[in-house]
Every structure is written in C-alpha cells, then in structure tokens.
Design brief:
The chain is α+β, with helices and mostly antiparallel strands. It folds into 2 domains: 244 residues, 2-Layer Sandwich (Nucleotidyltransferase, domain 5), CATH 3.30.420.40; 202 residues, 2-Layer Sandwich (Nucleotidyltransferase, domain 5), CATH 3.30.420.40. The chain has a 7-stranded mixed sheet with strand order 18-19-17-16-22-23-24, with helices on both faces. Strands 3-2-1-6-15-14 form a 6-stranded mixed sheet, sandwiched between helices. The longest helix has 26 residues. The model has no long low-confidence stretch (mean pLDDT 92).
Length: 488
C-alpha cells in the first residue's frame, strides 16, 4: 500500500526548509537552505529577497526531501497535500500578471523614518483595530517605504501576500491571505476578521492590493500540472491554507484555551490562547488571530533571542555541536558574567539595540567560553520572565504549567532556567524542534479529515529551588538598566 504523506514548506527568517511527513507527524525527509537577502541602499535597515530565486530554492529542496523520504521508506509515497508556513510580517509584492516584483522579510525596516508621521490619534485607532502599535516591523510601513522611494514598484503592484500565501499561490495559482498572517499587516481588523478600509486610509495604502482572506486548514485548490510534473507528485494533491510559523508552532503543542506557550526560535514569542479579543491599556502586548477559527493569541515577544544564541555558537563553538555546549554548561556552575543582548521587553518603550557582557576585572582565568554562552541563555530566560510578567499583568495566568516548543528548548539549561524563573512546569511535546512542521501536518489532517496522531507524548520539566534564581534575575535587571542608561 502507498504511504500517505504531506509536504510542508516552512520559510523562516534565517532559512527555508521543506519537509515530507506522514499523517502521524513522522519526519520522512527534510532539506533546508539559507534565505538570501539583499541590502537595499535606499533605506537604512532595509533588506529584500528575490522571490523567483527563493522559489527555485523551494523546488530544489522539495525534490531533495522527497528523494530522502523515498530512500527511507521502501513503500511508495503518495503526496496528497501540501501547505506552507512562513515568518510573520514578511510580504511579496506582485504585478497584474501574477509575477513577483519584490519580497520583503520581517526584519526589513524601510518604513521606519515615516513612523513619526502617524499621529497619536491614529496610533490609538491602529491599536484598537489591530492589537498592536504601528511600527516598521509590520507590512503597512514596509509598503509606505516602497511607495516613498520605489514608486514604480508600488504603482505596478497589483497584489500583496504573506510569504506563505505567496508560496501557496505558486503551487496552485489561487491568491489569498490567511488570517493569522493578515494580523501582521496593520491593515486587518483582528477582532472583525476582515480587511479594514479605515486602516488603509490611515496608512494611505490602496485597498485593492489586498487579496481575499483565507482560513487556515481549508483547501485552497489543487496543485498545478507544472508543479506536479516538477515534483513528480499526483495532480490530485491538494494545496492547504497554512499560516504564520509562530501560530503553526503553537498548534503543534495542542494547547487548550487559556494555555500559555513559549516558542523558542529565531525570536521567542510568548502566547496565550484566548477566546476574546484582549487589549492592553498600556499597549505592551499584541493580539493576533490564531490558525484555529474563533481563537486569538495574546502575545509578548522577546525579539531575536534565538538568532543571538546561534551567532554566539558560531563564535565560541564553531565546530562543535549543541551536545558539547550542554556538557560544558553542566560543568560550569558559577555565573562569571552577565549578558544583555538587546532582546525586547514589553514594558520598555524603545528596543535596546546595544548590549554586551559584564564580568569582573581583571579578567579571571576561570572565565571560559561556556560562561559567555551560559549568560546568553540566562539573558533569554530573563527576557522570557519579564515578558511573562507583562502578559500576566494584562491577563493573569494561574495554571501550573506552560507549553514550550522550538529549537531553543533542545538546551536543557535554557529549559531549566525558564522553569525556575516562571516557577512553572515546562511541558514539551514530541517533535518540538520541528514545531511549525508538525503544526502543518495537523492542519493538513484537519483539512483532509484524516485521523493523525493528536496525542503526541510530552515530558515535563519541574522548577527547582527558585530563591537564588530570583536574586540573579534582579541582578540581570540592574545590568540591563545600566546598558539602557548608556545607550538610550
């Protein structure tokens, strides 16, 4: 018998991967590559990517993943669904012919210099409708930047889509914008679940570029004959509406309403599943649509924590695996230094864009590379704690556990730090390192009404004695405050 399988395309900030999985969530084959960005000299902090080149990468990776899956299993595979997830806030601009003009990633800030043109009254209205303060992170400001300095591209733009929705268009030729992704545009009424004419007017963006909204976990269309031939998969393969990578990662933990989830990837969002649209009077949090119908996500985000850790590994452990790091961390009991690496705190009005390490001088011979990495993990855990406190101030959390997923939690040290600081049990399900891929499998199962493995086992990490950790947390706050006084 043929083995039923899905293709999951996952376009992150740092890399793109394509996975082949069965309907139980077993990974049969995966291939990944870096996403290539180009600096745009017309703006500070501006990057873009060539969508056509990215698509060729995706096709090549899909062929590799399929080849690996077929080698791994002796039975023939039948790919009967394909879906996509991607980094939030990123968009692709397209012309009337359906050709891609330019891709803008989430870390593109070409609209930053026009943030000040938004009045206070307009900012209040934006937060009321979108659950977030307007900033260059979100798609509307990116489009303003294009309009101001790349007017020819703006005038030629007939449609924008999130990166995952663009990938699905490439697969079946149907345009759409999934609701969790639309939450990140600042052009979408999150509570009303619709595009907003009022927001388009505030940002002076033509509403005609916004395609029909789509619900995650529904059938978008059948795969095109061209893609079918390239990948050698049946034309009966259905394209399923995916969603934002964070929301799909959250879905992989199978949380209930009211549960709180920490996703440790390139960034580290903390998210609480709610049935209601929750706003913060101090505007510290975001409220997004979840990929589940009639569910919202109340979020605080620590910023590029995972990316910081990855780059420090390249400096201190360029040729060693994470297992070597954990072994050395186990042998490093004392904290010889404290890090503050610029992560985001919900209570702070402005991000801290400078940071570093603080340690006693003269430099001790006991100071090792493990101390620097340990302090960076402590920095991540403390940022999680700070944002957790802000989230609880908006909507209290009384449960004795939080869910966790994402590659960052392969670190036992980080996981224990978080458990101790939150004084909560950390629950981690099987497949946590491929969380957005597992989330993609679950929505394919839902769309095809296929019984998958919805009871993935989880382990719990209990908090240890916390008094010393609370003292160290207060010390970390003092170090961060010192950096703020110097650099802000």
């Amino acid at each position: 018998m043929k083995q039923q399988a899905y293709i999951i395309i996952d376009i992150g900030t740092g890399n793109v991967r394509v996975a082949v999985c069965d309907n139980l969530g077993n990974l049969l084959g995966v291939a990944r590559d870096n996403v290539n960005y180009i600096t745009d000299d017309l703006y500070p902090e501006s990057f873009y990517f060539d969508p056509e080149k990215l698509w060729q990468q995706i096709i090549a990776l899909a062929k590799q993943a399929l080849s690996l899956a077929k080698k791994k299993d002796t039975s023939a595979l039948e790919i009967n669904a394909i879906t996509a997830s991607s980094q939030r806030e990123g968009i692709v601009l397209m012309d009337k012919r359906g050709q891609s003009l330019m891709g803008l990633p989430n870390h593109d800030h070409r609209g930053r210099e026009w943030e000040s043109e938004i009045t206070r009254k307009q900012k209040d209205r934006v937060y009321e409708l979108t659950g977030r303060k307007p900033s260059s992170l979100f798609s509307a400001l990116k489009l303003i930047g294009i309009k101001k300095r790349r007017s020819a591209i703006y005038e030629n733009c007939d449609c924008i889509m999130s990166i995952s929705d663009w990938a699905q268009y490439q697969l079946c030729g149907v345009k759409g914008y999934e609701n969790s992704q639309a939450s990140e545009t600042c052009l979408y009424d999150v509570q009303g679940m619709t595009w907003s004419d009022a927001l388009c007017e505030i940002f002076d963006i033509k509403a005609s570029v916004l395609p029909p909204l789509q619900q995650s976990g529904t059938v978008l269309g059948s795969i095109s004959s061209s893609i079918s031939k390239q990948l050698q998969i049946p034309e009966s393969c259905l394209v399923i509406v995916g969603g934002a990578d964070t929301q799909l990662a959250i879905k992989s933990t199978q949380p209930g309403v009211g549960d709180l989830i920490v996703v440790s990837g390139t960034t580290t969002p903390l998210a609480k599943i709610t049935e209601n649209y929750v706003l913060d009077s101090k505007k510290r949090t975001w409220t997004n649509r979840h990929v589940d119908d009639n569910r919202f996500i109340l979020e605080a985000n620590t910023g590029v924590t995972g990316l910081n850790y990855q780059r420090l590994k390249e400096i201190f452990y360029p040729n060693e695996g994470y297992d070597v790091i954990e072994k050395e961390l186990d042998e490093t009991n004392a904290s010889r230094c404290v890090a503050s690496l610029g992560s985001l705190i919900a209570d702070e009005d402005r991000p801290l864009t400078r940071g570093g390490f603080v340690f006693n001088t003269p430099v001790s011979h006991d100071l090792t590379r493990a101390h620097f990495v340990r302090s960076s993990l402590w920095d991540i855990a403390c940022c999680i704690k700070s944002n957790y406190d802000s989230l609880c101030d908006v909507d209290p959390y009384e449960k004795d556990y939080v869910w966790a997923c994402g590659g960052g939690f392969q670190s036992k040290t980080l996981t224990q730090f978080v458990a101790n600081l939150l004084n909560k049990k950390i629950r981690i399900r099987e497949g946590y390192r491929q969380a957005s891929v597992i989330g993609g499998v679950i929505i394919c199962n839902e769309a095809l009404r296929t019984q998958g493995n919805h009871e993935l086992q989880f382990k719990e990490i209990a908090p240890q004695e916390t008094r010393n950790f609370n003292d160290r947390y207060e010390n970390w706050k003092k170090v961060r405050s010192g950096f703020k006084q110097v650099f802000l």
